[in-house]
Amino acid sequence: MKQGIWQEFDGYNDIVREIEATRKYRENIIPDKYLTKPFIERLHPPKMDLRITEVIEESSTTKTFRLVSDDHYLPPFLAGQYITLYLTIGNIRTGRPYSISSSPNQTGYYDITVRRVENGLVSNHLLDEVTTGDVIETSGPSGNFYHNPLVHEKTMVCIAGGSGITPFMSMIREIAESGLDRTVFLFYGNKNQEDVIFHDELVRLSLTHANITYTPVIEEPLEDYDGTCGFITGAVVSEISGDHAGKTYFLCGPRGLYDFCLPELEKLGVPQRKTRREMYGPPLGITDYPGWPAKIKAEDRFTVSVKGKRSFQAKAGESLLTALENNGILVPSLCRSGECSMCRVKILSGSVYQPAGTMVRKSDRKHGYVHSCVSFPLEDLEVLV
Ligand code: FES
């Protein structure tokens, strides 16, 4: 590419690398008029069949699954994005998004890292039943949780909890491999030392790269532990990463992490526009959310009638999407976090609870559409799927 003033532009090198990566997959990045659709589908396939070639035990509760394509092509992705795995478990067809933990430089495979969730239908199935050689249907890479050099600062403060480390692994691996001009302060919270995933690699990367700082924070450490203990407080963050000037904050983990860390960042004066949070799956413990009607319990059941199909009983504490899937009614889904709009259904009668901040298009709201992955029945419903 021609040299010039553009090289001064923040993010120039990232964009050049992206163009080079795209060229690697297609000889000509300007698609022929009649080839636009296949070109787009090659880059953004709605579905793929990927084979598991390796299963890596990360800890007693966590495994990494390495996925490859039999035709040796995987669409490029941005570090921090996810793929959704579609599985049939018993007679339930469902999907779950998993962040890709491998680096985008590894063009031959995607790694996803799965931790066991108590009573987790999909995580338990993956960890107990799925093995090398199995083929899994997936979506193409998706999601908005990535570093955008045009918008975000070069210094990233990354706050992870539990399996929320996975998008950051992809980002950090890429920064280290590609020598990106980016600085990372990673704070990684876990209950116990044995829960920490990727610890050895993170220690090695932080020792060999001056722009990567790694701070594990352990809530209940063993007696002889001499690292940082407790929670990822504002004091811990500011002591290690300094003040918030020139930094963008990225958070990924369970709800408790956001509930605790976002106010801590606020106390440090971090403006909201400088924080990015990964949606990280459907809301859990929905009855504790602000605005949930106290008289309705999670186990309460309501009748859901699907127009032109059938009726079934659904629990108030279970998302409408899960209830539909459990009753054999297929609804397309991707993020399961209220972000992508794939799971829209129309509420013909009755009402649902949607957590504050749920992003629904204005026109959808006007015409009664909701994201079924983050909607919970509060009374009998009639829905159109
Ligand atoms: S699956 Fe993305 S909004 Fe529901």
Question: Can you describe what's shown?
Answer:
23% of the residues lie in helices and 28% in strands. The protein contains 9 helices and 19 strands. The strands form 4 sheets. The chain has a 6-stranded antiparallel β-sheet. Strands 10-9-8-7-11-12 form a 6-stranded parallel β-sheet, with helices on both faces. β3 (82-89) and β4 (92-99) form a beta hairpin. The protein is globular and about 60 Å long. Bound molecules: FE2/S2 (inorganic) cluster. Residues 333-336, 338-343, 371, 373 line the site of FE2/S2 (inorganic) cluster (FES). The site of FE2/S2 (inorganic) cluster has 12 residues, from loops.
Features:
385 residues; globular; binds FE2/S2 (inorganic) cluster; 28% strand; six-stranded parallel β-sheet
Mean pLDDT over all positions: 91
Shape: globular
Q: For the largest sheet, list the strands in their spatial order.
A: 4-3-6-1-2-5
**Structural class assignment:** alpha/beta
Bound molecules: FE2/S2 (inorganic) cluster
* First-residue to last-residue Cα separation: 49 Å
Given as residue ranges, the uncertain stretches (5+ residues, pLDDT < 50) are none
Largest sheet descriptor: 6 strands, antiparallel
Helix content: 10-25%
Secondary-structure element string: HHEEEEEHEEHEHEEHEHEEEHEEHEEE
Gyration radius (Cα, Å) is: 22 Å
